[in-house]
Amino acid sequence: MAQHRWHTYIDPDGVARTDIFDPLATVQARTMRFPLFHAKDGKRNPNVTNGYEFAPLGQGDIDYGGFFANMGAKGYHNPMWEQDNAPGGTADPGRSLQYAEISYKHMSGLRG
């Protein structure tokens, strides 16, 4: 989401600058600072405010496999998954648990 919503800033001289957030570069520069990752996945959709629609981990557009494989300190980092909108509601109350199961399977596969 940060790459979609916040890609410019105003420097101390009042000049607009572009700086696309790169999560992998941020972690690679401080490998041991981030043992736990709040991992959310999504599918790109420029028609929504945040630029993404939530999806179970592994079913979105974010390359978590590449992210965890290339950050360094193998075996030190751990993802935890959350989906803010907990889909299903009264029509399908078990869907949030199904999404948790899908996401867990993808997270456990990152350890391979």
3D architecture notes:
The chain has helices spanning 2-5, 23-28, 64-70, 95-109; strands at residues 8-10, 16-18, 36-39, 41-44, 52-55, 78-81. It has 112 residues and is an alpha+beta fold. The strands form 3 sheets. It has a two-stranded antiparallel ribbon. Strands 3-6 form a two-stranded parallel sheet. The mean pLDDT is 86.
Strand content: 15-25%
In terms of structural class, how would the helical and strand content be classed? alpha+beta
Tell me the radius of gyration. Answer: 16 Å
Extended strand count:
6
Biggest sheet layout: 2 strands, antiparallel
The overall pLDDT average reads 86
Keywords:
112 residues; alpha+beta; two-stranded antiparallel sheet; two-stranded parallel ribbon; 29% helix
